[in-house]
Amino acid sequence: MIFLKKDEECSCSSASNTKHICVVENIEDAIKIQNTHSYDGLYHVLGGAISPLDGIGPSELSFDKLLGRIGNGVEEVIIATNPSTSGNATAMYLQKILKEHSITVSRLAIGLPVGSNLEYIDDKTVATAIKERVELN
Fold first, then answer.
1. b/e map of 45-71 (b: 16 or more CB within 10 Å)?
2. Residue 49 contacts residue 87 (beta carbons within 8 Å)
3. pLDDT > 70 fraction of the chain, expressed in percent and rounded
4. Average of pLDDT values for 71-85?
5. How confident is the model over 18-29, as pLDDT tens digits?
6. Domains of the chain with bracketed CATH
7. What is the pairing mode between strands 8-9 and 17-24?
8. Of 79, 81, 86, nearest to 57 (Cα)?
9. Which residue has the higher pLDDT, 9 or 64?
């Protein structure tokens, strides 16, 4: 059970799919994903993101605990770090340390917000959306 407040169970503790772990930077990110009702697996909260300028390296985050959970029948780790410099560094580090395990490693798609106009979107987001485009059949 996961408790965010005393005696108040988090809805993320009732996952039916225990073969997937979604890795997030903080509990607020897990709650945001849970509130979409689009994911019903487990979560792993790192406690932040790698940020050398802020003195946060891999040893300050809970990577070891994540690796300890991998052997329990986990088939996929979904990296849901923020699309920021520190989030991307964290995602790259996760990809590196998970490479030796026989599991699928995926990352949340990054792209254009629903209802937006291209002229108002920053260049990096548009470039990422072009690179990460999907084929329509």
1. bbebbbbeeeebebeebbbeebeeebe
2. yes
3. 90
4. 93
5. 999 999 999 999
6. 3-109 (3.40.1360.10)
7. unpaired
8. 86
9. 64
